[in-house]
Amino acid sequence: MVRLNKFLRAFTHEGAPSWQLAPEQALQRTLLSCLLWEDQFYEDGVSVAERIKALVPQVAPREAAQLAVRAREEMKLRHAPLLVAREMARLPEHRALVAETLARIIQRPDEMTELLAIYWADSLGPQQQRRRQPVSAQVKKGLAKAFTKFDAYQLAKYDREGPVRLRDVLFLVHAKPRDAAQEAVWKQLAASELPSPDTWEVALSKGADKRASFERLLAEKRLGALALLRNLRLMREVGVPRATIAAAIETMRTDRILPYRFITAARHAPDFEPELEQAMLGAIKGYARLPGRTRLLIDVSGSMFAKLSAQSEMTRAEAACGLAILAREVCDGVEIFTFSDKVVKVPPRRGFALRDAILGSQPHSGTYLGRAVGEIDRKGDRLIVFTDEQSHDAVPSPKARGTMVNVASYQHGVGYGPWTRVDGFSEAVIAWIAAQEETLRGATLH
Prior knowledge:
Elements: E1 10-11, E2 17-18, H1 23-32, H2 45-55, H3 61-73, H4 79-89, H5 98-105, H6 110-119, H7 137-147, H8 152-157, H9 166-173, H10 180-190, H11 200-205, H12 210-219, H13 225-230, H14 232-237, H15 242-251, H16 259-268, H17 273-284, E3 290-299, H18 316-330, E4 331-339, E5 343-346, H19 351-359, H20 369-376, E6 382-387, E7 401-406, E8 420-423, H21 428-445
Parallel strand pairs: 3-4, 3-6, 6-7, 7-8
Antiparallel strand pairs: 1-2, 4-5
Helix pairs in contact: 1-2, 1-3, 3-4, 3-5, 4-5, 4-6, 5-7, 7-9, 16-17, 16-18, 18-19
């Protein structure tokens, strides 16, 4: 006879016992730290997508919508929240929230075409010969709301070749322009007559002098922060003066730049480490502080040096270092450790010096997270672990206020039970820990 009233045993890839999560927790874990359709170290991106599809029907409509918004706004993910919205559109009980969810999570014009590509993925073959599925009214309504967000520059910048173009979206949803000016822009889009946007990609593709193009874009403040970080080495190679680049780094907006992006930029352009470090640490000012003593435990095992995505050069270790740099700045008192086969204490340096201390602390070999927690866990302290949650051994419940921050999206991890769980590698992780503790202190006082 089959017995349903039993625990489900699960294991990490490396064999440590795990817990089976409730659907909402499982969707949150999968969603907030995933790079959709990108291969993970132990799990390919298609499996991640299929898991999201399976979990959305098991989660309450409002909770699914809120997770999609968190994934876009807090974790800065693009494809994963679109997939959640598409799956919600399949479900009668979720469908009513699709329009408002799409209007919120679509923040770039090409996300509208990506949404339709996801929507039609089941019906489009390699040559797009199969019939496209009709788009639901809620999806059309959400896309129509989103379309009004974008100006001529944004539409031109993201009107890219592909099976679905922005003009296709416009014709499909029958959006209403805000005013006559927007109506004129949409007519240009429909006729494929939008002027080319003045971006660095367009400037360089036209064969213009690279140095002159970069200098003009910098002078006119038309090079965004991410584009600036990605092109540091190229700008130096074509002869842009160092002082010009340094001044741009000092004045760029950093509010949407994650700490590990500075680390990657410094790897490719080490000449600018002083300016990059100053910008990174400057972005941290104003964060909520973590009072008392904190112990940081950073995973430097082999799996942490897998890439965040197939298109990215950043690794999980760099994401963890970025979070450790941030945490070190906001903790009143801090001790820092790394673990792989053993536990090593590293000096609590600042900025890139802390990155160097972490990455050079020991060989990047096996993963004994349970042993590491047992060695450094201390009652009364705060313990924050940055890891991908793969381990050869079981992980005990923490004596300290234990937070397990997962920078990967594996289905099974070790940090359940009494651990406070955080999935993802956004700078919002540290602010979230501070907010949670403030809430708990307030509840205790009352």
